[in-house]
Amino acid sequence: MSRTGISRKSGWGRATGLAKGLMLGAVMVVIAACSPVYRNHGYVPSDEELALIEVGKDNRDTVAATLGRPSGEGLLNDVGWFYVQSRWKHSGALEPKEIDRQVVSITFTEAGIVENVERFGLEDGKVVAISRRVTTSNIKGVGFLKQLLGNIGRLRADQFID
Predict the structure, then answer these.
(1) How many CA atoms lie within 13 A of 162 on its CB side?
(2) Which of 74, 69, 72 shows the shortest CA–CA distance to 107?
C-alpha cells in the first residue's frame, strides 16, 4: 500500500487484465462473424401495384409502364413475364440458404393482352434447378460421312423383297 492507502496493481495484475480484454475481444469477433447477413435479390411488384393491372384490358406496354420490365420473360413462346425476388441468409462459413422467394407471373395472349396474373412463393412448389440446353453440332462425335455411310453392311436381303 502507498501512503494514501490506495494499492497499486502489480505487473502481474495488469497482464491478466490485458489477457482478459484480449479474450473478450476475440469472443466478440467470433460472435460478430457468425451473425447472419441477409441479402435481397430481384424485384417483385407489391399487391397494390398488381391491382393496377386489369386482366383482359392491359397490354405489354401498359404493364411495362406500370410495373417496369421484368427480369425474366418466357423463353420458348414469349407469352409470359416473370418478376422474381429472393432473400438469402448468410451465416459465417456456412452455405447461404434461401429463406424466401416470390415469383409474379403475368401471362399474355397472342395479341399481347394480359391473360393472367399469379404470385408464387417458395412454399408453393419445388425448387427448380435452371439448366441450359445447348444443341451440339454432331451426335456423339460422329461426323457427317460416318452418319451417311454408317448403315452400309447393316442391310439384309429380305429388306429389299416385298
Answers:
(1) 0
(2) 74
What's the whole-model pTM score? 0.56
**How far is CA 33 from each of CA 21, 24, 39, 98, rounded to the nearest angstrom?**
18, 14, 16, 19
Distances 14 to 20, 24, 55, 138 between C-alpha atoms, Å: 10, 15, 75, 77
Per-residue pLDDT 10s for the chain (162 aa) are 555 555 555 555 667 778 888 888 888 877 777 788 899 988 889 888 988 998 889 998 999 999 998 876 655 566 788 888 889 998 877 888 888 888 888 888 888 888 888 888 776 555 443 333 334 444 556 666 676 666 676 767 677 676
From residue 146, give the alpha-carbon distance in Å to each of 10, 29, 47, 91, 92.
Answer: 91, 66, 59, 55, 55
Strand partners, 162: none
Which of 75, 91, 77, 62 minimizes the C-alpha distance to 131?
75
Q: How far apart are CA 41 and CA 17, in angstroms?
A: 46
User: Are 86 and 103 within 8 A, CB to CB?
Assistant: no
Three-state DSSP at 4 gives: coil
The three grid cell numbers given for residue 159, joined into one nine-digit string = 429388306
